């Protein structure tokens, strides 16, 4: 089966796994809300006992790894190509969410460390943007 759109996360390989997985969860929730259920092609799986496992995407979700500056460049390319995306930064951890908002607002972009981004868009475009990155291991 071929898909019109591709769903990819690029995570910072230099960030501790628990922290970067938290970033992935936050970014994915936000992007999923933006994209919406129909575009994500979500299905409910049911086992023989009738238990339902809801909202599993038909689309593969590919997780890649890169450095902060590579993620920054990917985000800029996503903006140029109007690819839907989510971003998580170092300023978005520690303290309350209000403190995180203030910390982010007070930070120049070039000083931010990118923990990751998630991308959803045309299969060929997203593939070209992310082809140089390795799979997360």
Can you put this structure into words, describing what you see?
There is one protein chain. The protein has 137 residues and is an alpha+beta fold. 39% of the residues lie in helices and 31% in strands. The chain contains 5 helices and 7 strands. The strands form 2 sheets. A 5-stranded mixed β-sheet has the order 5-6-1-4-7, with helices on both faces. A hairpin with a 5-residue loop joins strand 2 (42-46) and strand 3 (52-57). The longest helix is centred in the first third of the chain and has 19 residues, at 17-35. It is globular, with a radius of gyration of 16 Å.
- For the record, give the distance between the C-alpha atoms at the N and C termini, rounded to a whole number: 26 Å
Estimate what percentage of residues fall within beta strands. 25-35%
Number of helices: 5
Strands in their spatial order, largest beta sheet: 5-6-1-4-7
Shape: globular
Largest sheet: 5 strands, mixed
Rg over alpha carbons: 16 Å
Structural class: alpha+beta
Features:
137 residues, alpha+beta, 5-stranded mixed β-sheet, two-stranded antiparallel sheet, 7 strands, 39% helix, globular
Short note summarizing the structure:
Helix content is 39%, strand content 31%. With 137 residues, the protein is an alpha+beta fold.
Any chance you could write out the topology, listing elements then pairs?
Layout: E1 5-12, H1 17-35, H2 37-40, E2 42-46, E3 52-57, E4 61-66, H3 68-80, E5 84-89, H4 97-105, E6 114-122, H5 123-130, E7 134-135
Parallel strand pairs: 1-4
Antiparallel strand pairs: 1-6, 2-3, 4-7, 5-6
